[in-house]
Structures are given as structure tokens and as C-alpha cells.
Design a protein that fits this description.
single chain; alpha+beta; four-stranded mixed β-sheet; two-stranded antiparallel ribbon; about 50% helix
Length: about 475
């Protein structure tokens, strides 16, 4: 292990420099595309949480929340709990479909940590919608910039990037939301970094650990913020110190500084919303498989499949896995399963992962070969390409190559939100949530949003909450 000398304490620490930049940012400084992207990511997070509310991991996360008479809401539930427990539960719900937003440059899912933290804290402390959006942008920025500098394919084979980066992104976002002073914000960031974790053993065994990684990160971020508010101090040089974040996880020297929004660039614009409920590295291959499937009359004629991918996709734990599939998560991570199911069913939906014993899917998954593609590898993470090549018993060959993942569109995000939310909280309340997010910067009380995401006890109550949300502008 390379040793790192203790930084000169006369210099501004990496953490403090990031805090100073973050505290100076205002929503008006963010580009219109960035603000629009933030709203779509929030809507998509809620969509995932609503749709996943009845999954076993969601029920388990809700079950461990303390039941209180006042506090923060759990999406799709009548339970009120502490900000920390609500963050844990909501992050777990948002991760349940494996369809959360993705930042390829850091190999992490930042939104599934940031939004639960902000929604919970906004109920605890009154804040404006504009402040919530700005805080979210800063969370994505911190997670993305630190992740780009720290995460490597080798590191991601051992540690979950979301587990490492999530506490930092959540703590910085929450500190900005609540208006913590500089010292308290540095303390919150440092204390949160102490909780960075998330081991990648789960792909090898099919364990459900992964679903809870964002929950642990979100709860740790809230706890770190509350400790900092209470006066706790963290290590100033937690990022670059000899036993800090980079030395501990990367075994490398930290950059002298990690600039936020350099030259006006915004990490939120590097985030994409997944089109299908599966691992990031299976997305493009599944899309290519659907295009191939449209040209095949019968999958029984397929006798060879080669999937060309970047190194990062093949090397990520659980992605190169031909089976057997005992748990849905193993199938959602497996490129072989995802492509096979897409070829058989000509689509990729949650239903694909409910029956893991389909003989046609298992046959294709078993004969599939993953091949490293130098062009895709060179383009990653700026682009995430894949090619699916199928050989038929007739001797014909069909191949479709996609240079980058095709992200879910705004209309798709809105449609799946309406479908999931309406089923849980009713059409009227779902419409009110969507309306509030669309105009969030104009609302004085952002905490109303989480309240709207809970089921109404009766029709009149639904109207009353929606009316209060509109009045909060």
C-alpha cells in the first residue's frame, strides 16, 4: 500500500473546499436542463418506490421503522417515523426494482440516496422547493465528482460504489438543505464518510444485501447531519488523509482538490434514467436484444448468442452469470438472463424476473457468450455500448449494435409514475404530486411533497392535502 503524507493543515482540506463551493450555489445558477433533469429524477425515484412497496425487502425496511405520531413519511405508507428511519425505508423502496437512476462515471446510484434524505429532512425542517432542488444538484455533484476520482472497476468488484459514495452525497445535500454552517457541514461530510461501506459479496450468493445499501447510506447521512447539528466534530482531512477515504478504499493518493461544477459543468446531466428494471450494465444489451428479437420468428431456431460489451460490464460482480437463478436479483444482475428474456419476450419488464424457470430463457442464457469489445471499453463511461449477435440453425446471423444506452424518456418516466402512484395513493393525489414536482421551485414548503406520497384515509383528506400543497406555493 502506498503511504500518504498528512496534508499540510495550513491548506484548505478537500472536504472544506467542497463545502465552501456547495454553500455558495443557488438554484438560479443551475442550467434549465439541469433543473428539469432533477425533477425527472425525483419523479422516477418516487415511481420506483411506489411500484416496489410490496416487495419483501420493502416490507422488511418498513417493518424496522419506529412508529411515531409525528415525523417523516414513508412513501406509499401511512407510517410516520424518524427522518433516519424514513430515509432508510424510502431508499430501500426506491432501489427495489433495480431501476433507479444511474451515473456511469462513478458506477453509482446517487438519487436513491439523495432524494430519501432530502424528503425526510424537508418534513423535519421547513424548506423551500428551490432549496431542495439545489441541495439535490449538489448531492449529485459530490457523489459524481468524488466517484469519478475514486471508483475503479477493481474497487467496484469488492465494494458497492453507492455504499461508498452515498453517505457523502446525502450528507452534503442535507447540509445544504438545512443551511448548516461551514464547520457543521464539514463535520457532517466527515462523519458520513466514516460510514462508507457496502460489500459486493451478494452477487455471488444471491443475497438481498444490495437492496439495503442505499438505505444504510441514507440513514447514515441523516445521522451524520444530526450529529453535526448537535456539535460533533469529524476529521477535517477525511478525504485525503493517510487513513482517509482514498487511502482506505483506493489505496491511492487523493486529488489535491475535487472541484464541484468545474467550468459550469453539472454532474446531474451525466445521470440517466433506466429504461428497464435491471442492472445498469444489462441495459444496452437488453435493448439490442429486443431489436434482434423483432427479426426472429422463433427463438427455438437460435443456436448461438454472442454479446459484445465494455470490460466494465463483464467485470462487475454478478453481470457475467449464466445461472442457475434462485433469486430475482441474480437474474436482474445477469446480462445472460436479461438478454435471453428479452429475446424470448421481445421486451424487458418487471414481469421478466418473476418466473426464473422458463425453459426457453434458461436455454438461451446457457448458450450465451460475453465478449469484450475494445471500442465499447474505450468509450465507457461516456457511452455504454453493446452488441447482440445471434446465430440461427438456418445459418443466418442477426446482429444489432447500439453505441450507448437509450435512456427512458420523459414521457415514459411520467407514464410509469402515474401508473404506480395512482394505484397506491389514487389518481387525484398522484396528479398533485406530479404538479408539485413540475413547479417545485415555486413552492415554499417542500415537505408537503412527502406528505402527498402517503395514502389518503378518505377522499376528502386527499383533496385537503392536495389543496395544502397548492397553497404552499
Amino acid at each position: 500500500m502506498a503511504t500518504t503524507a498528512l496534508p499540510d493543515h495550513r491548506q484548505v482540506s478537500v472536504a472544506r473546499a467542497m463545502v465552501r463551493t456547495a454553500r455558495a450555489v443557488d438554484l438560479s445558477q443551475l442550467s434549465a436542463p439541469a433543473q428539469a433533469k432533477l425533477k425527472m429524477c425525483l419523479l422516477d425515484f418516487l415511481s420506483c418506490a411506489f411500484e416496489a412497496r410490496d416487495l419483501p425487502t420493502s416490507r422488511q425496511a418498513i417493518a424496522v421503522a419506529a412508529k411515531l405520531t409525528s415525523g417523516s413519511a414513508i412513501v406509499g405508507s401511512a407510517i410516520v417515523t424518524s427522518a433516519a428511519d424514513a430515509s432508510f425505508a424510502n431508499a430501500t423502496l426506491g432501489h427495489g426494482l433495480v431501476r433507479e437512476d444511474m451515473h456511469a462515471g462513478s458506477i453509482a446510484h446517487h438519487g436513491v440516496v439523495i432524494w430519501p434524505v432530502l424528503l425526510a429532512l424537508a418534513q423535519r425542517t421547513p424548506v423551500s422547493g428551490a432549496r431542495l432542488l439545489c441541495a439535490a444538484a449538489i448531492g449529485y455533484e459530490v457523489g459524481g465528482r468524488v466517484g469519478r476520482a475514486l471508483m475503479t472497476t477493481a474497487l467496484a468488484q469488492l465494494f458497492r460504489p453507492t455504499g461508498i459514495l452515498g453517505p457523502l452525497a446525502g450528507a452534503m445535500a442535507g447540509s445544504v438543505l438545512l443551511g448548516l454552517d461551514e464547520d457543521a457541514s464539514v463535520a457532517a461530510l466527515a462523519l458520513a464518510a466514516n460510514t462508507s461501506s457496502g460489500l459486493n459479496q451478494w452477487p455471488h450468493e444471491g443475497g438481498s444485501d444490495m437492496y439495503f445499501h442505499p438505505g444504510f447510506a441514507a440513514r447514515s447521512a441523516v445521522t451524520a447531519i444530526e450529529l453535526a447539528e448537535a456539535g460533533a466534530q469529524g476529521s477535517e482531512h477525511i478525504i485525503e488523509g493517510p487513513a482517509g477515504l482514498f487511502a482506505a478504499f483506493g489505496r491511492v493518493r487523493s486529488p489535491d482538490t475535487i472541484a464541484l461544477f468545474p467550468a459550469g459543468s453539472e454532474e446531474i446531466l451525466a445521470v440517466y434514467n433506466k429504461p428497464v428494471p435491471a442492472c445498469n450494465f444489462a441495459q444496452t444489451a437488453c435493448q439490442a436484444a429486443i431489436r434482434v428479437a423483432q427479426e426472429i420468428d422463433s427463438v427455438a431456431a437460435i443456436d448461438a448468442i454472442t454479446v459484445h460489451l465494455p470490460d466494465a460490464a463483464i467485470d462487475y460482480p454478478g453481470c457475467d452469470f449464466p445461472g442457475p437463478y434462485r433469486h430475482a436479483l441474480q437474474a436482474k444482475m445477469s446480462i445472460q438472463y436479461g438478454v435471453a428474456a428479452a429475446l424470448v419476450r421481445k421486451s424487458v419488464a418487471e414481469e421478466n424476473y418473476r418466473r426464473l424457470d422458463d425453459p426457453a430463457v434458461l436455454r438461451l442464457a446457457a448458450l450465451m457468450r460475453l465478449k469484450r469489445d475494445s471500442d465499447f471499453t474505450a468509450a465507457f463511461p461516456a457511452a455504454q455500448g453493446a452488441e447482440v449477435e445471434v446465430g440461427l440453425s438456418t445459418g443466418a446471423r442477426i446482429s444489432r449494435r447500439i453505441s450507448d444506452v437509450v435512456a427512458a424518456t420523459e414521457s415514459e418516466i411520467r407514464a410509469r409514475f402515474r401508473a404506480a402512484a395512482s394505484e397506491v395513493i389514487g389518481v387525484e393525489r398522484a396528479d398533485a404530486v406530479e404538479e408539485m414536482i413540475d413547479g417545485l421551485e415555486r413552492f415554499a414548503h417542500a415537505g408537503r411533497l412527502a406528505e402527498l406520497c402517503t395514502p389518503a384515509g378518505r377522499k376528502g383528506k386527499s383533496r385537503a392535502v392536495a389543496s395544502r400543497a397548492r397553497a404552499a406555493r
